[in-house]
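Protocol step 6 of 9: fold each sequence in the batch and record its structure tokens directly after the sequence line. For illustration, a two-sequence batch is reproduced in full.

Sequence one:
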Amino acid sequence: MVKAYNRRRRLTRCVPSVMDEQRVTLRPVQSGDEGFIFRLFAGSRPGQGWLTGLSEEEKEGFLRQQFQCECESLLGNYPDAEFSIILLEGEPVGRFFLLRGKHEYRILAITLLPEHRGKGIGSGLLENVLQEASELGRPVQISVAWYDNPIRSLYERLGFRILADNGIFCEMQWTPANLADACHENCTVKSFA
């Protein structure tokens, strides 16, 4: 399953600024990364208390099914995306999946181990993507779960706006300054609930 992540030859660019000080780099996902990526996936899900009556083994099986669905969806819907592991001083600390599309960028996933959150790694990656997209005049989109308030707040601080809401996820977009006036004048929030 993870072998398919290596469809892109181009590495996601290393990130400057704060990232240099922390020696943060990106490398393509490799077949041996599946266990680490699953750990990130499972750790980013809200409490599983609603899974009552299931053993720990059954809960893990359920999460593995969700993980498999996410992998298949990402690979099927975004075959040209870059699937990277975030490294801090050479050690894996997260995942960063990005599609650099012809008309827009789409952040597919950005997840850090809990002990590496809040240290500027994720926001540094995001700021660099926004800078690159701005230079190319492309908006950046991401889908964010409503239950993930701290992450949604980070995106809002970076200038993302909610474009659509399906009750579980909201579609957010950051628009470069040179496009922002035209986009925001015609922007309305879509609700699918």
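Sequence two, same batch, same settings:
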Amino acid sequence: MKPTLTQLTHLSTGDYFATWLRSGTTVESLHGSDGRCLASSLGAKLPRLTKAEMAAAHAERHPAYDLAAQGTAARPELARRMQAAADLVAGGLVTLYEDGAGIVASRSHACAHQVDDHHCDCQDFQFRGSWCAHRIARRMALALGQPELVRPFVAPAAFPQPRLSISAPSPAG
């Protein structure tokens, strides 16, 4: 069955990042400026991009997608996580702290994950103990210098006590 091109992004390097649907499976790939497939997830053989497909892909995209394409070329087995991480960064769902740790919102669940250099509290990381989309998104945001670093909230040690005291009215008598 011939794969169907579902998304194509033109990168600042001149290459293209593509998402294909092949026999019900999503396959990501990196194509050269001539349209030839350079690398793909799952080792899939994919067709050369047409001139019309490449011309349609020249819209401006977030630089996180360039990082995802570079990461996919280096580690094709992480292609799906690279794309998901770029979506998180482009969507503004990464918050970094001054110490380098961060919080990355989940796109599939109504929660956010604590992330640092070596750990994420998501189920994917807990199961695999390796790169999840949240850890990759944090690294992308750091590499791109965005968003601005914020200080973590620190609750005060003790809240001040009110100065006003209220007492019950004395019985009339």
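Proceed to step 7 once all outputs are recorded. Observation for sequence two: The chain has five helices and seven strands.
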